[in-house]
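Cont'd.
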Amino acid sequence: MTRFIIRRLGGLIFVLFGVSILTFFLAQVVPVDPAASALGSNAREEQIEAYRRKMGLDQPAVVQYANYISRLVRGDFGVSIRTRRPVIDDLRDFLPATIELTLAAMLVTVTLGLPLGILAALRRNTWLDGAARLLALAGGAMPIFYIGLVLLGIFYRQLQWLPGPGRLDSTLQPPAHISGLYVLDSLLTGNWNALRNAAAHLVLPAVTLGAYSTAVLLRMTRASMLEMLGQDYVRTARAKGLAESAVIGLHVFKNALPPILTIVGILFGSLLSGAVLTETIFNWPGIGRYATTSVTTLDYPAVMGVTLVAAVIYPIMNTLVDIGYSVIDPRVRAE
Amino acid sequence: MQASASAASLTPPAKSPRSLFFRRFGKEKIAIFGLTIIILFSLLALLAPVLAPYDPLYQNISDSLSPPSAAHWLGADKLGRDILSRLLYGARISLATGLSVVALASVTGTLVGAFAGYAGKWWDEGLMRITDIFFAFPSLILAMAIAGALGPSLRNALIAVAVVTWPIYARLARGQVLVLRRRDFVEAAHAVGAGHGLILRRHLFPNMLSPLLVQASFDMGTTILSVAGLSFIGFGAQPPTPEWGVMISEGRNYITTHWWLTFFPAIATLLSVAGFNLVGDGLRDVLDPRLRR
């Protein structure tokens, strides 16, 4: 068990190392002089030259990479060209918004995808199954930016049932900063106004972001349940007179769960990709939108920082899922 | 029907594997439906210059935002361009991007993965760790960073999406090679003195095609969505290109007042992606005997 975890963590470190090389390489390819853009358009040639020497930008790429890594280890991600702030501070501000959105989307995914998938499997080949499969097909094929635009158009502009873009109405103060997740922070500080407002702001982006993963989870749950329903031990359980609820709960669902959990973990990591589009549409101040604006303005210190953080989240999630999985299912450890 | 299907899987196939494949695939009604969509879209894309009633870039301001009518079957956009014509030309772009990304990614990935699995030892370890690194990136963020570094254009969006797509083929191909190289017919080929190249070409590649084909079908859909997404946020095809993501982006402020600007490109995307996903499902059911029920 411990050996398994150590091996996984070793792999994780290697991946992080590779990710840093790749982001560094990307920044080298950009057709932008980092020194000139850091100093702005009014800088004189000798100032740029001095900055280049100071930051080691005149050194060979290998030396620059070594410097980059040693700065990274100390938590120095460089300074954003656009916001003129340390990238790490920017990320600290933007990341909680993305985490909150991702968690909300995951909540949508699990509360919709899981029960619908189970129901579809239990009522196989009925209209309910058909409807669920159609939903899964459409959810997996519809561009999520269109879903977001339509939801905004209907529920915000037309019906005015829900608030529009952003995390909070501009008339409200954000809750005191504890975790950076508005819903959680307002709950902890008893700020009910902010809680209601922040939660309402979350609904549309969470549904938008969760649409695709709901579709995937629904399909996987249905498939996994169907596979278990066809097993011999299920027939045995029924034959020995076990109540149907016990057959489904104890035998079918419990055994169908591991692949479902894996998918939940993978989906969680992949939600970040979708967050880019969702955050753009809903003007959500998360790292997806930060990434978009940084790439647009060729703010490469920021791009490197955000890619690195984004790339770190997925393998960490995967490693956690694997470790969790190996706890539930001993067969995995042997592989 | 049920009986004949199970009989076919118990007795050795009397017919060639190919005809068996087509017979099984023909029974997958939903997959046939998906295939029909794809063929239809491909025909529309190929015949776009003949079918399109207008030039996709032709502007006629007096038709600006006109709803679907006899003159413009699917309406016109803000600049009075015919949406049907733009949609037809957009189908060319979407299908061509899907095909080129999948071709680029699957060939690269398969070669890397097959080599890793066949060479084994350090090669395998090293190459697979490299694919892990590419797996770590959220695809859209890496694609965005690449598109940003190379400059936003459809071609660079293609490269970006291919870069995040190839690792899955490397993993699949490697897994297949690892299983296949222990099989008797490969060992036998070794024993009679067949070279590595011949074994890879003759014995391994043909036998590992199935899972790659299934993956390719799903990736056609995923690629169409990714490229549309990149174009939507400005890192892919640029206006006035009649690309579906660009069209949705251009119509985003008219979503409640002039729904046809965004609705038709969204439905076109939905149908084509769903078509490829359905075919992928069908192929997997037919080609993967373990899942066949």
